[in-house]
Amino acid sequence: MDAIGLIVVAALASQAKHRIFAPNSFWYRPIPVDAPLHPRSAEFVRDFLRQKKAYYGTVSINTVAYASPVYVAGPHAKTFKVAEWDGQNKGHSDPALLAQWTAVPIPDYAQAADGTDMEMTIFQPSTDTIWEFWLAKKVDGIWQACWGGQMQHVSKSNGIWPHPYGTTATGLPFLGGQITADELRRGEIDHVMGISLVDLESSDVVSWPANRSDGWNPNHVPNRPPEGLRFRLDPHLDIDKLHLNPAARTIAMAAQKYGFVIWDKSGAITLRAENPKSFTLAGKKDPYPELFHGLPAWQVLEGIPWDRLQFLPMNYGKQSFD
What we know:
6-stranded mixed sheet; 16% strand; alpha/beta; single chain; globular; 13 strands; 4-stranded mixed sheet
């Protein structure tokens, strides 16, 4: 990519950094200090701590794998038809999905995320459109993916994929809940953060803003949080007394003000940050070694008192949108 192209990408990336969806989207609404708590908040906190201890003893941040690169396309970008492949052996295709992928402005240098999910996001501000892909790959010069979708009129959207589209298990888009390098550099995250847990309530129990779930609880173990449930860090906690590294401090402050939403099931408790391929494939350096102050991703959030979490009621905030 030439110098002019990089300048365009940088300008568009700046435009894309936050407030992607409608201003009144749940993604951007702070949680009042006196918000009601779930009647089983304490039980959910105990289960969160159990999961943290059982699965690697940490809350980590996905970057290169299991986090979506975001490629911002200009108004005159060349478009490509993306094919659907049966990565789940369903034995059938979805014509409505294929119709959403007829003209996608994918940069020539684009790659999907590492890891088995192979996620990828395309955002075109000029058409107010995003595309998401799961199990995305380029075969013989042709892009194909197993699932995802196209969301139009994004700036007026509530930030939730129409059922059953989108790549996360809950229908919540990456652009809503991922942490960006720009936010960490700025020291402010002004939106709800998506978080993945390991042990979740069964898929027939779903809390808004999720519209579906891949939760699994066949033995009906009590106090497993459902997907879509919101929680936060105690707003009365004095973050400055924790002496966190700058990235962790930024995340902790956002966790008090906007909180988390459970948007996926994973093998460990994890947040997602914008995949560094968004930068490195455009000729820029990976920003995270500097932003994480040389720490590995699993160590960045050490020092956050996860026992001070507070879970919010089922469907918290939904009444504001009905």
